[in-house]
Amino acid sequence: MKNKPAIRVATVSDAAEVSRLLRSAMLTYCADSGISSSMLEAMTESVESVEDRISKQTCLVAESEGKIIGTICIKRVENPLVYSFSDETFAFLEKAGLSFYISRFAVKQSFRKTGIGIDLMARALDIARESDAKSVILHSAATNKGMVDFYGNRGFELIDSENSRGYMRGLFALTF
């Protein structure tokens, strides 16, 4: 890679390109996780719902040569207990303090393992830290070794997992 990709805040005009990237990346995520693409909400959302998320959350994109090659969204969560699905999760989230939630994290296949994902995650975590967050939480397939390792290498811990969506879905948390 000649020039390091720029990371910037997404705009509503990025929604169609972000939507295409998410669909493509989620197909790989499904294959790596051993789950059907029909189980993922991200596979069925419209460009309009991506526009809505971009307008309401902090969504970042990585851009190289005018093309979006990565994305991540982070939002402040007023009540992290909405993510509770067990007594163990409830106990953690009850003490979590000001929390942020990460979603729709994706990097274009040809740019994986180049540091783009690390840079996007670092920028998202900086946003949480700058807002005095006490924790950052996210969900991921607990069967996706690559993602579990990626999050673990960033300091996230698996808090709990559940199967309500038809696959083993983990709640991961990073505390500051």
Structural commentary:
It is globular, with a radius of gyration of 16 Å. It has 5 helices and 7 strands. The protein starts with 5 loop residues before the first strand and ends with a strand. A hairpin with a 2-residue loop joins strand 2 and strand 3. Helix 1 crosses helix 2. With 176 residues, it is of the alpha+beta class. It has one domain: 3-Layer(aba) Sandwich (Aminopeptidase), CATH 3.40.630. It has a 7-stranded mixed beta sheet with strand order 1-2-3-4-5-7-6, with helices on both faces.
Q: What overall form do the CA principal axes indicate?
A: globular
DSSP summary: helix tally: 5
The domain count comes to 1
SSE topology string: EHHEEHEHEHEE
CATH superfamily: Gcn5-related N-acetyltransferase (GNAT)
The overall pLDDT, averaged over residues, is 93
How far is the N terminus from the C terminus?
33 Å
Q: Which bin fits the share of residues in helices?
A: 25-40%
